[in-house]
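Below: protein 1.
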Amino acid sequence: MFKQLFFLSIFCLLSLITFAQTGNNATIMARKQVPIVCYHQIRDWRPTDSKTSKDYIIPVASFKQHMKMLADSGYHTILPDQLYDYLTKGTALPSKPIMLTFDDTDLDQFEVARPEMKKYGFKGVFFIMTVSLNKKHYMSKAQVKQLSDEGNVIASHTWNHTNFKKITGKDWQIQLDKPTKLLEDITGKPVKYFAFPFGVWNAQNLPELHKRGFKLAFQLADKRYPLDPLMTVRRILDSGYWTTKTFSNNVRHSF
């Protein structure tokens, strides 16, 4: 009898937890999405750039025009802690919120994006691929620390841009644990946010992010996963092909 009551109690507890989590996920899914923009390289196109790669390379003049448009239109940049509190608790955000995110540790993010954003008081989220640190055309550890010290958020993008779906076993230490520790040592701050390389994810590996205490994970434009919306936050690329008007329309209508 005692055993039956014990297992019944455990079953009821698990059911309550599942019900509560399902309710939380439904609440999160129901909240209006915040526009989140993803950048990679910020430089002028070269003759060797492929048609596909130009989607991921925004010319310097275009980036500057897009930042000016956001400022002139009254957008306010937010950071992941604010987004997390909004999604989980309904905490108010500033008017016209937007998040600017940068993947892959490219040096032009520091040399071009950083000063342009500073003109308007914008802050961003930099998803760092740690294998690239201190290498040619990539940011140094000192530059990553400077970004953090200036109020930007430093977050994880794996060690060497491995497909999230293919990480197994001890690879989690190589791709998540060691890079997280390194970034925390560089910045002196906890690393609680993650972006999927290539924007690719699978449901079966999402618990590995929860286990490690990540609060949000960012993909690209695919649909969010209703059972785990915090780990499948949507972003859009600011394409190198977009005019300022196209960019403005996508920011307003893609979320």
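Below: protein 2.
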Amino acid sequence: MDLSVVVPTLNGRDRLAASLDSLAAYAPDAEIVVVNGPSADGTTGMVRERDDVDVLVEISARTLNVARNAGIEAASGDAIAFLGQDFVIEESWLGAVVEGLADADVVTGPTHQTLRVGMTTDEPERREIAHRRVTYFSGNNVAFRAETLGAIDGFDEYLETGGARDAAHRVAGMDATVRWQPRMCVRREYEADGGVEEHDWGWKYRALTYRLVKNYGLRPTVVRRTLSHAASDAVSTAKDVVGGNAAPTTWFGTGRDVVAGIATGASDGLVARARDRTTARNPHGLSKRADRAVARYDWR
């Protein structure tokens, strides 16, 4: 198996360097494709000075799914993995990828996060939606057979968030197999920023509704799941207001953004569903454009 690893990056030079160091140590024979765009922190110079990167693609868009698709275009392997710029692979990662793709179309594994008080990890997430068994995967740690990526036409570039979850629905829709490999581990080191996590509620619900409507249509299951998410977030925001961690106007603003996101996502999802009636369900996919890269450095 010839493995390509695509690493999208944006203004993360030091973290990217650590990620590339781990690939050089534990997957030295893999083809490494870095998709940069557009960074303003010297990432391009750092990558060009390394001898362990095979392709550097510069793009003008700041959208992660555009970067992923640009990486697919540049990759030559019959298996393509995606690794987030904030993550390093562990020693067992490569063997788990090879083993998993021997009898599955997609393989994914856990993310370890190093904290001051220890280490966290995650477990496989699976859902049944409209009689479809969906196994979710993180876009920061997943590997596909190249023909599987071709069958789903890569990632949906409409989405600014939730691209990997959308891909999981589409993979399930064509009955492709997703295998969870506990040894396919990546790690993100703890970084304290002292800030409060901010949510773009409008895009969260726009993306959620879009991918559900696009993949399943306007059926009761879709409506129920969307409203369940909205109710849960409404309760959480209300608790913040009561606890003095947020202003009352925050609750109303969140509600407005959620409603607008749902309306826009549902409308755009219906349009997307009509535009692509194939199993790929990807009217904004890999094959739809050829102008992602503004520069390309190929050292193969």
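Confidence is low (pLDDT under 50) at residues 192-197.
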